[in-house]
Write a structure and sequence with these properties.
Sensor_HK_TwoCompSys; phosphoprotein; transmembrane helix; alpha+beta; ATP-binding
Length: about 475
């Protein structure tokens, strides 16, 4: 059933209705033919009996005076039976006496054969017909004929008195009637069959049209459902990415605030505190009675100026990472990287080597800014976590991606990596760079080099549709 239901609606209709209609019509035709044959034979029983009575009654008149037929009557009956048999309508004739004795039967002779119960009903003057049970031993001769027979019982009367002298049993060939009906039915089906096929074809075309519409709508619904599932999945992934990005942005913002606060506290605030102490010393000296130590006061003022300049440099260094005018001035990524490398070398004294791709692809302003921030952060982290090291910046294309690689040679002798754990696990630099790379659809990887040093590799897909 599952295999059948897997077919289209029109094919199910064609197979199902065709099979049911064929079986129904065949069963109906068989039933109608059998019923019509039976009804026709029943209706013609009286006519056949009247016909046979007129032919047989003259040859049974001797039974009114004796229990046997005269030889000449027996010969005449035998000739009639042979003629009917050749004609093919009445294939067998039997005559029974009033005592239930078989007095004429060309196939079996005559003698003491057990009669049917219908004989005694016919002796009362009744005429009736039936389909005999040819499997009965009493019908061996009839069964040998190999056709369907219809059995008719009719009383045979005395021509003068009308008294029933015997019972005539006639076996009519039912196949002749059935064949005639079948021929008539075939002629009828020659007209009904094409008409049925036309109606069936029209119904099939109607169902086929509806089936094709349903199939198209089913395909479209499945496509829309698959598209909806894909959109829902993409939307769910996008929501997760947005949530993760928001969490990362919040974490980065919090760490950035902590870092700026730490830089201000450890740098500018310490210098300002020292500056306030020096100002207090100067004020105390000025207000002291007999304050005449001008060289000492001049030294304090000189120290205040020095500390103030250093404080300004600290604040400029911190704010310089927040507002970078060189990002707007650089027309290309290569120019921006050169500017960042020069500024970093001037501030830290580190040597920065450049190996930039000469045929770098055109990048949007957002991409240049993002990659510039990654370079800036990577150089700052190298100076912080690998003091005294030299750095190298490389750009190239590989497997459909633009690759940015920043590496350092490791801390110089005499320097330690006190903040390595912060850099690898809890610091701001690496998570911030990874977040920036992901915002461009790329990836960022931090690796340790042997025997020392580290590198940051950022890969940005050049195809915007690439995953």
């Amino acid at each position: 059933m599952r295999w059948f239901l897997g077919f289209s609606l029109s094919l199910q209709f064609l197979v199902g209705l065709g099979l049911v209609l064929s079986l129904l019509l065949a069963s109906l035709a068989y039933w109608i033919n059998n019923r019509a044959t039976t009804r026709l034979l029943d209706a013609s029983a009286d006519t056949a009996a009247f016909y046979m009575q007129n032919l047989l009654q003259p040859h049974v008149q001797a039974l009114g005076r004796s229990e046997a037929l005269l030889p000449e009557d027996f010969a005449a009956l035998d000739a009639l039976a042979e003629g009917f048999r050749k004609q093919g309508n009445f294939l067998a004739i039997k005559i029974w006496s009033r005592e239930g004795k078989l007095v004429f039967a060309p196939e079996t002779g005559h003698g003491h054969v057990l009669p049917d119960d219908e004989i005694f009903e016919a002796l009362e003057g009744k005429v009736f017909g039936r389909f005999p049970d040819l499997e009965d031993a009493a019908h061996d001769a009839e069964r040998a004929l190999g056709v369907q027979l219809y059995e008719i019982y009719a009383p045979l009367r005395d021509l003068e008195t009308g008294t029933v002298l015997a019972v005539g049993e006639f076996y009519q060939n039912a196949d002749v009637v059935r064949g005639a009906l079948l021929t008539s039915a075939k002629t009828t089906w020659l007209f009904v069959g094409p008409l049925a096929m036309i109606v069936f074809t029209m119904l099939f075309l109607i169902v086929r049209r509806g089936s094709l519409t349903i199939e198209r709508q089913t395909v479209e619904l499945r496509r829309q459902f698959a598209e909806r599932e894909r959109l829902l999945l993409g939307n769910s992934q996008l929501h997760r990415s947005i949530a993760e990005a928001a969490q990362n942005a919040a974490n980065i913002d919090e760490r950035a605030k902590r870092r700026i606060g730490a830089d201000l506290h450890d740098g500018a605030c310490q210098l300002l505190s020292y500056l306030v102490l020096e100002i207090d010393r100067l004020e105390h000296m000025i207000r002291s009675p007999g304050a005449t130590d001008e060289p000492k006061a001049a030294g304090i003022v000189s120290e205040i100026k020095k500390v103030a300049r250093k404080t300004m440099e600290e604040i400029r260094a911190i704010s310089g990472g927040l507002v970078a005018p060189q990002f707007d001035a650089a027309p290309t990524l290569a120019a921006l990287i050169e500017t960042l490398a020069t500024d970093h070398g001037r501030r830290s004294g580190a040597q920065v080597t450049l190996a930039l791709a000469p045929n770098a692809p055109e990048l949007t302003e957002t991409t240049r800014r993002t990659l510039g921030r990654i370079v800036q952060e990577a150089l700052a982290n190298a100076a912080r976590h690998a003091p005294g090291s030299s750095q190298k910046i490389e750009t190239y294309q590989e497997d459909g991606s633009f690759v940015l690689r920043i590496s350092d040679s490791g801390p110089a002798p005499g320097h330690t990596i006190e903040q390595e754990r912060e850099y690898r696990e809890g610091g701001l630099g690496l998570p911030g760079m990874q977040f920036r790379a992901q915002s461009l659809g790329g990836t960022l990887e931090f690796r340790r080099l042997e025997p020392q040093g580290a590198e940051v590799v950022c890969r940005i897909p050049l195809d915007p549709d690439a995953p």
